[in-house]
What we know:
This protein has 364 residues and is of the alpha/beta class. The chain has 2 domains: 10-153 and 307-326, Rossmann fold (3-Layer(aba) Sandwich); 157-301, Rossmann fold. 45% of the residues lie in helices and 11% in strands. It contains 12 helices and 8 strands. It has a 4-stranded parallel β-sheet, sandwiched between helices. The protein has a 4-stranded parallel β-sheet with strand order 6-5-7-8, sandwiched between helices. The longest helix has 21 residues, at 205-225. It starts with 9 loop residues before the first strand and ends in a 38-residue tail after the last helix. Fe (ii) ion (FE2) is lined by residues 189, 237.
Amino acid sequence: MTADVSPYDALLLVSFGGPEKPEDVVPFLENVTRGRGIPRERLEEVGEHYFLFGGRSPINDQNREFLAALREDLAGAGIDLPVYWGNRNWDPYLTDTVRQMAADGVRRAACFVTSAYSSYSSCRQYRENLFAAADAVDGGVENAPVLDKLRHYFNHPGFVEPAVDATLAALAELPDDVRDGAHLAFVTHSIPISMAEGSGPEGDGYVTQHESIAREVTERVRQETGRRHRQALVYCSRSGAPHIPWLEPDVNDHLEQLHADGVPAVVMVPIGFVSDHMEVVYDLDTEAMATAEKLGLPAARAATAGVDPRFVAAVRDLLLERAAVERGEDVARAAVGDLPACWDRCAVGCCPNPRADRPALAGA
Length: 364
Ligand SMILES: CC1=C(CCC(=O)O)c2cc3nc(cc4[nH]c(cc5[nH]c(cc1n2)c(C)c5CCC(=O)O)c(CCC(=O)O)c4C)C(CCC(=O)O)=C3C
Ligand SMILES: [Fe+2]
């Protein structure tokens, strides 16, 4: 593949956003949960997670690092392309960034979202955010840059290989006498079951995609260690009203169960997340680690992809792949595991909005 990025003249990093100081926490939570029926007690509890870390989420700094790494990677490959960054829930907001892109004369940008899987929250909602940002440009969507969302990358080798190495490193942290019997707990964000059922073009995409990668990482770990560790997909960060069912088991309940079953140790592998943001440093490193400690269950947590050079290079690969597709060329799409590489444009009914039909970009 050549380093031809045409028809793109910019890359846009799209992320969730997070608060940076204590005064930001409540307005940030209001942005996230506007119109979503999250109980007040849950918001107060989550606010406390942020206050425990000084009112500052790590996510924006992680995106700044990722941006710097991306720019370096592109420059190193001889690609001269401006890289922008915009968030759904906090400054820099996508609407401001897309306005700036329009003012800078950007015509067509490839968008990389810091969320690897299908679901309303992790895909269509970002597509709605992209539409709203384009629509907020003077003159509306017609005058805004064309925004193409790059395909899901949960099964891109640049995302999976760092997870394998991180799992091996976490296993190595466990005491020698419990390592071989350790279970792997692959962790991702819980979502409402109705949202999970509607995810992806055929439904159940969220769980199916995670399960595929959990199996692939487990198999690659076996190839390295000669051990087939038992594994399960479990969930963190359940929100919403208690009467609405969300994906289970919760990681803490899972740890209790492992302990009750006599499992000697566990490695938590947060395959649902691309960096060590609040869900990871609070829900796993703080809360789930406390559960493991209380149980006397040796536990280690695998690192997320973060700025691993292979993950950063995966963004370049996805950009060049999509650019070639848009130029009408044949491309080989990198993918590992038992699912094929994902589609470029989401199907019409993919990951429906549970509340309202809002316009979204980057669909068929
Ligand atoms: C699938 C998924 C991902 C992974 C994909 C992706 O990355 O997009 C994700 C990531 C994140 N979620 C984050 C934070 C929050 N998520 C919330 C609430 C919710 N998340 C949901 C789903 C997801 N969330 C859902 C269905 C809700 C209920 C409300 C709604 O229907 O939207 C709430 C409200 C309080 C609460 O109820 O927990 C907060 C504060 C942060 C920032 C962390 C930081 O600050 O470091 C990140 C990266
Ligand atoms: Fe979330």
